Structure to design on (253 residues):
């Protein structure tokens, strides 16, 4: 519970038996965290059982894909604040406190993994991946009049359930390039969005998206296309369906 709001963590997991137990335990050891949801995406290993034993609520999502898993979590989480993260050892659980400290003023608080000073030695954030993340994020930010962004593909982010509920019916991406879609929709709804620096460490277990340069190029290109297509036509189609996020809009009174 944080400022009278319940806090839930959503962890998408596909064969994450090496990191899942520690990830769930680390989050549950923080007094502010009320629930941890593990969205098991057809894991063939012991992920689901280990997550349950560690105290998580385990939900099975059979549609295979990083986006599908996160979207299921956004639908299932019934806490006031929903925090997306990954159970692969790359994120530091206590960084959720940084996200929470902005939650009063912002409907979505995104993390960035591209802050040089917070990239750990073993982290998979070489110059190519770092600059690619920054470039795609800058394009998104400019095309949608957003805040300064440097990592629109960082899983560790907080969203108010009220905003998630408005977004959920509009989400379309089930694959690895899902995250920028959340950002675009939030910006189109004029929800207050900010990005803050988080630690980024080395992974345990095998990377399924950005572990190989082909995955980086494929996901980066898909993100870029998504952003451009939304800007070119999606916006006009969407405008009819979109209502603005109520409450703390901007400029502030
Ligand atoms: N790539 C991928 N990841 C999935 C899937 N379902 C759930 N996940 C989880 O999504 C997260 C992101 O994948 P990961 O391999 O860490 O990608 P990376 O962060 O680019 O190295 C991990 O926690 C995965 O376990 C899926 O179908 N594909
Ligand atoms: Mg990862």
């Amino acid at each position: 519970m944080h400022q009278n709001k319940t806090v839930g963590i959503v962890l998408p997991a596909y064969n994450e038996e090496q990191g899942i137990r520690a990830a769930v335990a680390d989050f549950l050891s923080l007094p502010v965290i009320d629930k941890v949801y593990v969205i098991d995406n057809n894991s063939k290993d012991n992920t689901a059982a280990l997550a349950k034993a560690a105290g998580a609520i385990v939900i099975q999502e059979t549609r295979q894909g990083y986006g599908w898993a996160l979207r299921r979590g956004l639908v299932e989480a019934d806490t006031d604040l929903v925090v997306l993260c990954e159970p692969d050892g790359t994120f530091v659980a206590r960084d959720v406190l940084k996200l929470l400290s902005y939650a009063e003023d912002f409907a979505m608080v995104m993390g960035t993994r591209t802050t040089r000073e917070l990239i750990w030695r073993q982290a998979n954030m070489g110059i190519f991946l770092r600059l690619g993340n920054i470039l795609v994020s800058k394009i998104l930010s400019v095309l949608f009049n957003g805040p300064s962004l440097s990592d629109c593909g960082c899983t560790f982010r907080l969203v108010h359930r009220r905003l998630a509920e408005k977004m959920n019916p509009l989400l379309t991406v089930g694959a690895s390039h899902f995250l920028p879609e959340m950002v675009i929709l939030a910006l189109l709804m004029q929800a207050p969005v900010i990005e803050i620096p988080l630690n980024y460490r080395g992974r345990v277990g095998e990377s399924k998206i950005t572990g190989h340069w082909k995955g980086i190029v494929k996901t980066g290109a898909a993100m870029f296309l998504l952003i451009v297509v939304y800007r070119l036509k999606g916006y006009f189609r969407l405008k009819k369906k979109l209502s603005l996020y109520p409450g703390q809009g901007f400029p502030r009174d």
In short: The first strand starts at residue 7 and ends at 13.
